[in-house]
């Protein structure tokens, strides 16, 4: 391996870097910089002349149809200069291009018979693979007569959906109308090279794609795709070199993948230990992890898992030490129960049906001494969702009362940049879903289900739609801890487990009232909420560090690739 190649491979740190390196190698190949030219090779100009003569002979024999003349390449259209002996070719002039065909209705031609013919669809291809070796379906002989049958070894390319991806068939079969097939005239173009160069021409195909929804490639436009054509002998040398370098890329990708997998498994093991209530070395494990988290965290996903583990530890009484002098949570809950009775007597809240006591079997895990399990309904004065006013978006106004929707509710706070507004009149008709400061909001439907925030003290008033629940605590001093509980993995898993409806996209208030929340002594809650921001800041710092390292590594790779591509007069990647 020469120094230039070695430098490129040393700059690679991720799977995405490998993909960029492969694209660079392919680009250099298409510019004639991958292998040395041999002045003794028969030039591509002679090769193209032979292709033209071969086409005329095939037309005379009736084996192919005479095609419309494709406009020659204008000088202004030439993408870049080529080495001596190379020529720009037009795809439609060097291959016969056909579109696949699908018999209609296709369901009438699908068969389970062993005599069926492979029915090759886009879904049978695997991105990154060179060959298509199997199909999920077969069609009948009658169906095959209405399609395009190809032998193994044929070259095809997708012309819709994931257009511009080329493959070699490893099987015989009929191709769906989402494919184009390419038959090389008289074998003057090495099929492996054409496959690589087609995959390296995606930018051209992207410019030629049409359609507003599912974009596809017009066959006439594809025919006028420009490809750099090397001498035949050099084509073979290029393919050998690309295969050699791509093999090294794949080996490196596997090493990177295995390293990340090993690191991820190790981190998962630590996270599992941290969340295991039977782990007697929990505090030691946590201390070890905090001291070494900078070395252990390799990706944003690792940091996300760390955040979840920290939240879990907080809810298990493992984040801060217990103090036997703390007033137990049972006293706090008794005070909340007394406040509830006062609110009922004052007719500020309605008397709710008393839910069943929490049995030992219901308790998800054992709590530290001084902690208690409580149903969410027993610590709230209000728990309910809003509604969309009659008329929907049509009644939103430029100003007025803030109308909070799920897109405004985030775990890190209430975001009001894109908040909607409703009139005072509509708000007065929706008093039951008025939002107050210190309320906790929880998204209960859709993709953002489980997202939650505390309404800040500076908030004046607002309302919510049916996708957001209001949780109003009797004791506002525990709002931060309850919010922490709601966004913890423990409660989020409960939310996923009890979603209702066929599409499993909604959380009912009945189920939410039943949620069991672990309550620590009030003083311990304060200690938890004091330590938590520090740990979360460490996570944020780690995430920024990982992002910075990734950006630096990407900058280094781009710099090396740019430096290599600028050396126009050298064969950058010669063996």
Secondary-structure topology with pairs:
Elements: H1 3-10, H2 15-30, H3 44-60, E1 87-90, H4 91-94, E2 95-99, E3 110-111, E4 117-120, E5 131-132, E6 137-139, H5 141-145, E7 148-150, E8 155-158, E9 166-169, E10 173-175, E11 179-184, H6 191-199, H7 202-208, E12 209-210, E13 216-217, H8 219-223, E14 226-229, H9 232-275, H10 282-296, H11 300-315, H12 329-345, E15 372-375, E16 380-385, E17 401-404, E18 409-410, E19 413-414, E20 420-422, H13 424-429, E21 434-435, E22 440-443, E23 452-454, E24 462-464, E25 468-473, H14 479-487, H15 489-498, H16 509-514, E26 516-519, H17 522-566
Parallel strand pairs: 4-10, 5-9, 17-24
Antiparallel strand pairs: 1-14, 2-11, 3-6, 4-6, 7-10, 8-9, 8-11, 12-13, 15-26, 16-25, 17-20, 18-19, 21-24, 22-23, 22-25
Helix pairs in contact: 2-9, 2-17, 9-10, 9-11, 11-17
Describe this structure in words.
With about 575 residues, the chain is of the alpha+beta class. It has three domains: about 1-40 and about 235-325 and about 525-575, no CATH class; about 40-230, Adenine-n6-DNA-methyltransferase TaqI, Chain A, domain 2; about 350-520, Alpha-Beta Complex (Adenine-n6-DNA-methyltransferase TaqI, Chain A, domain 2). The protein is built from 17 helices and 26 strands. A hairpin with a 7-residue loop joins strand 8 and strand 9 (about 165-170). About 30% of the residues are buried. Residues about 570-575 have low confidence and may be disordered.
